[in-house]
Amino acid sequence: QVQLVESGGGLVQAGGSLRLSCAASVRTFNTYVMGWFRQAPGKEREFVVAIPWSGPSTSYADSVKGRFTISRDNAKNTVYLHMNSLKPEDTAVYYCAASVTRLSSLSSSYAYWGQGTQVTVSS
Question: pLDDT tens digit string along 45-61?
Answer without folding.
Answer: 999 999 998 877 888 99
